[in-house]
Amino acid sequence: MSKLIIANWKMNMSANAAMNFVTKISKSKNQIVIASPYTFLKRLKNQLPGFVKLASQDVSIYEGGSKTGEISAQMLKEAGCSYCIVGHSERRIFKHETDEEINTKILNLLKFKITPILCIGENIKQKKMGQTNKVLVGQLEGALKGIKKIGNFVIAYEPVWAISTFQTGKIKKSASLDNIKKAHIFIKNWLKKRFKSQSNKIKVLYGGTVTPQNSPEIFKLKVVDGALVGAASLKASSFNAIIKFN
Ligand code: 13P
After folding, report:
1. What number does the ligand 1 atom closest to the CA of 88 have?
2. For the chain, which domains are there?
3. Which atom of ligand 1 is nearest to 164's Cα?
4. Sign of the CA dihedral 78, 58, 151, 46?
5. pLDDT tens, 41-61?
6. pTM for the full model?
């Protein structure tokens, strides 16, 4: 089975570095997506090889109008985005995003047929208190509220404690294969209960220090449909090493 592998560049890369990166992407039998900063989305779209799709890292809760600094789902569609990340833990933490806002963003994206990549995951305190499943259910229920027809949809399980950004100064650490497997099974079972047969189309990815070293083992897990990659997606060499999986 091919995997969906998404590069989340976060607030990194210059336009020139991004264009240079694109010329170096190796062909892959997996589905590849790049979530780029806003300013060079359109330029990137024109340069990407056909097998690589474009994603935004966020979208406004508003649909348009007098909302200085915001970017609407319609604008992202126009820029060529097929996907959009919502609810990343960095935004939940730094921007205090709520499940209600994330739900609104998802509804906006669905109107423009942009596939949401919904990030969910517990923090270290919640993990230690054995609250992982409870947190996941709360985030899923909140973000997917009122949605009956789900269509193409991506969930990224990103335990906050395994994201390298939050490990500054410490050894980078990913979740164990057992942790990943358990969480993915739990999420998939929840989706099946909620969306019945429609859930077959929903992809569940793992994110949290996915690297060329650990990606082959993670991808071997059947319940893992792919990965959302941060730091290791910033260099073509390490990203190519991840996407060569087959
Ligand atoms: P890292 O791969 O750098 O841990 O980032 C994960 C992430 O936040 C992807 O969205």
Report:
1. 10
2. 4-243 (3.20.20.70)
3. 4
4. positive
5. 999 999 999 999 999 999 999
6. 0.96
